[in-house]
Each structure stands twice: as C-alpha cells, then as structure tokens.
Amino acid sequence: MDAPRAREQLRRRYLFPPDTEAPQDREGYARPEASTAVEKKEKPLPRLNIHSGFWILASIVVTYYVDFFKTIKENFHTSSWFVVGGALLLISLSIACYCILYLEWCCGIEDYDVKYPTLIPVTTATFIAAGICFNVALWHVWSFLTPLLLFTQFMGVVMLISLLG
Questions:
Q1: Which residues contact 55 (CB under 8 A, 6 or more apart)?
Q2: Helix ranges restricted to H, 1-79
Q3: Residue 109 above 70 pLDDT?
Q4: Which residues contact 98 (CB under 8 A, 6 or more apart)?
Q5: pLDDT tens column, 46-95
Q6: Beta-carbon count within 10 A of 92 CB
C-alpha cells in the first residue's frame, strides 16, 4: 500500500479534515516542524480536573487529620534538621522565583534553562535535600508515614498553584 493512499484511508477512518495533514517532503514523510502545527490546534486541558482535585482534597484531609500545622509548630525548635530543611526550601523557592518572576516576566527570557543551565539542577537538588531534611525532622512523629504525608502535602500545594496560573 502506498503512503498517500494509507493517509487518505486514515483520514477517512478518523474523519480528520484535510487541512490537518502535515506537509511532507519528496519521499512522503512528514517534516519535523510540521507536527507542531497539528499539536497547536489541540485544546489545553482544564485546570481543575479529577487528578488535581484529588490531590488538593487529599492534602486538606491530611492537614486536618494529622494536625499538620500544630505538629510543625511543636517540632520546629526541637530539631536542627527542620531548620536546615527550611533553609534549603527557601533557597529552592528563591531560585524558582528568580527564574519565573525576574527572568521570564521582567527580562522576557522564556528559555532560561538554555541560557542558565545550572539553575534547574541546583533548584531540584536543594528541593530534594529539603524534603529529606523534613522527613528526618518529622520521622519521630509519624514514623514510616512521614514520606507519604509530606508527599501528599507537596502534591496538594503543586496542584493548588497550578489552578492559579
């Protein structure tokens, strides 16, 4: 079966309009830049979906049932791991705000990871180190449930932020 005939059968099968076909080179293969034109026509996903709603609701439930803020307040001064984790989290969030607010919004640099390639790995490393410090600091409170509870809180915050922007 030749390529033009196969494309025509595929278009008929899925009822694609003729203008969505990607431009091709002489051999009948789609050019790489052509696929992005078809992808741009897709609708973006809604911000609030089942996945994000689940994580936000799970984070609220965890916060309520384990007295999350009360526990944090009581254990803040008992462990130096908590202070180190807080400092690392502050560094990570500062770098993220620098990338998003200053580089992208003020300077107009959308590909800051290309211009400053070390920012993303440093931010990721400090965030992971902060998570480890928080797990060590709160391990005596929730034991083996600590990573699960902190991950649920993290995902709830991430999904809540994704609703805003």
A1: 152, 155, 156, 158, 159
A2: 3-14, 34-39, 50-65, 68-75
A3: yes
A4: 119
A5: 778 899 999 999 999 999 999 999 999 988 888 899 999 999 999 999 99
A6: 20
Pick left, alpha or beta for residue 143 (phi over 0 → left; psi -120 to 50 → alpha; otherwise beta).
left
Instruction: For tokens 């991430």, name the residue.
Output: 158
Q: How many residues does the chain have?
A: 165
CA 61 vs CA 11, 41, 123: distances in Å: 48, 38, 29
What is the per-residue DSSP string for 98-124?
A: IIIIIIIIIS--S-HHHHSTTHHHHHH
Question: For residue 139, what pLDDT band results from cuts at 50, 70 and 90?
Answer: very high
Which pLDDT value is given to residue 32? Answer: 58
Both tokens assigned to 68 = 């999350």
Question: What is the value of pTM for the model shown?
Answer: 0.69
